[in-house]
Amino acid sequence: MASAKSSRSRPAGHSGVFPVGSAAAVGSGGGGGGDGGVQLADKLKIFKTDNFDPDAYVQSKCQTMNEKEIRHLCSYLQDLKKASAEEMRRSVYANYAAFIRTSKEISDLEGELLSIRNLLNTQAALIHGLSEGVQIDSLTSGPEGSAEDDISNVEDQEPSEIQKWSADFPDMLDVLLAERRVDEALDALDEAERVAVDAKRKQTLTAAEVSALKRSVSDNRQRLADQLAEAACQSSTRGIELRAAASALKRLGDGPRAHSLLLSAHNQRLQCNMQTIHPSSTSYGGAYTAALAQQVFSVIAQALSDSVDVFGDESCYASELVTWATKQVMSFALLVKRHVLSSCAAAGGLSAAAECVQISLGHCSLLEARGLSVSSVLLKQFKPSLEQALDANLRRIEESTAALAAADNWILTYPTTGIRPLIRSSAANLALQPKLSSSAHRFNSMVQDFFEDVAPLLSLQLGGSTMDGITQIFNSYVNLLISALPGSMDDEANLDGLGHKIVRMAETEEQQLALLANASLLAEELLPRAAMKLSSINQSMDDLRKRGTDKQNRVPEQREWKRKLQRMVDRLRDSFCRQHALELIFTDEGDTHLSAEMYISMDNTVEEPEWVPSPIFQELYAKLNRMASIAAEMFVGRERFATLLMMRLTETVILWLSEDQAFWEEIEQGAKPLGPLGLQQFYLDMQFVIIFGQGRFLSRHVHQVILDIIDRAMAAFSATGMNPDSVLPGDDWFMDVSQEVVSMISGRGRAANGDREVNSPTASVSAHSMSSFKSHGSS
């Protein structure tokens, strides 16, 4: 049995328990440096050897070490001790069911061995009694006179002191038991056992007297044990009396029964105390949880103290204690779940649920400080309810935001009364407050509260589901914003997940840009800032060793989460640009403003056309110019987003032109070829886009697409047998016409030589672009 217990008490191999610094500390002490990845079993191997000498080990390590190195070694040994205890606990929990079952069987076996010992003692006494009877019978077979002499000698002989004590023992014990003088009764029973053994060895008592004494000891032991058990079961027996009864039972050799009665008495006390705690529909859930937790965990703590005081750290008793405590915590968790968490989960009361969990885990931490870990039982029971509350809270945010979106006027304002601001409002920091529409303000405020409520629950590993939930409700809100764009309801792809929600349309360009301002500010700043609350609290819960690694692991996760949010904003931006591009390209009747016919038909007129960019491209620039002015006020500090938005709108129009197969089939293979005037107008349109787009509305990619479009148009013209250079005006002509229209639309006056100086860098770049266009056409 001892060897089995010893093998169970040794921790299994473990890796990654200590920070690198601790491993290095051993290295400095002679234990081999750089063993941060060494298995825990290997580190503990030296301590497991039979000939391990602590004094010699310390002398070998500390003989040449200075004070700092000795402190490092002491710190390392303490860490090793903690890691070993933690590994022992994990090993026990890993095979807990088998461990409890084996310990119970061992306890039962010890009880059976005690019964067998008592039975053997009784049988031995019986055999001795029979043997004494045979000897007496043999004496009667002698001469009658000698027998009479022996009897007379026995009758005349005075009883010895030991015989007198043996005869008075039952009466003395009856008095001690009646007066409940337990310790004296136990001492008397132990003395009687010693007397019986000594009398048998020295033959100071006859075999019958020894047998009678042993029977008296056995009967009175059982009688005392029953009396102690009855006393332990009384509700009035508490504290010192209860521990004394259990300790006395243990002295009687019935330790398993004593421990079970100890736990039973605490359970009886707990059930009695819990009858005074009644949940009510009007009561506060946190108050009920606190009152219930106070009763349950205080009783468990007292039972732990009593068990340790009476039985020490014996594994069989510790296992029974852990099983009993786990059962009590399970009952507590079910009560809290039934009377508090269920209603919180159904109503989305995440804050109330989080408070109950915090109260419960706080009491668990007090037990863990004393070596009893039961928090995993609570977490397993509470997690489903908390996940339900989390989902209900997310649905409430989604539904509340959708209700406000139905009446949102899509005008950006600072937070109003009733909506929680990020910082205190004042004249100095008003500009730091976010400008959002009413539904976005509501969404942001509820998400901020949500993150604060869920932050204390990170020990339940809800961080992943929390971030996924925020991603889903933000996606739903983006869908609402997309549906607020005029014309988006015609796109069935935008209706997925929208259900029957009603959204107020954003009619003006300012309102439509406000949709993008809502989404971009939430995705780029407000939601990531709120999510940092989870990261900071989670990091503070980790120990020093894990902190750096977890931070490195969380950074990519946070970046990926922000990329998900940004992709949703990009979807809204693309819908915005697609809608405005379609408004430019198509009429209300479905006809197009940008067709091959508008260029081919120019050579069929007799009169010289008025050379200005086509209306669609003038309207494109006018729209971009208006939106850029509005965006400059809306996207303060986020000018890059506004610039990319304008570039994306330009790209949408140009890519549509580049990919319109009907347009190019008519240009390249139509019945009427593209003529000189049509080529000049097309060239002017593309040059106009280059001029107004450079540095503001045109990306490098779209610039290259325009070059390819011009190249394709010139190739189609060259296929007619004419040279494009012979029919197109010089570069300055295209630049002057484009600049004049740009100035006219933007409202800026032109100098005598145009907006740019001849030798300015911008002018040289434009001239270079014209040369590139002409060279592409010539080739």
UniProtKB/TrEMBL annotation:
Q: Which InterPro entries does UniProt cross-reference here?
A: Cullin_repeat-like_dom_sf, Exo84, Exo84_C, Exo84_C_1, Exo84_C_2
Record-annotated Exocyst component Exo84 C-terminal domain positions: 164-373
Q: Where are the annotated coiled coils located? A: 175-202
- Where is the region Disordered? 137-156, 748-779
Bias kind Acidic residues: ranges: 146-156
Which biological process terms from the Gene Ontology are attached to this UniProt entry? exocytosis; Golgi to plasma membrane transport; intracellular protein localization
Q: Which Pfam families match?
A: Exo84_C, VPS51_Exo84_N
User: Can you supply one Gene Ontology CC term for this chain's record?
Assistant: exocyst
Q: Which family does it belong to?
A: Belongs to the EXO84 family.
* Listed name of the protein: Exocyst component Exo84 C-terminal domain-containing protein
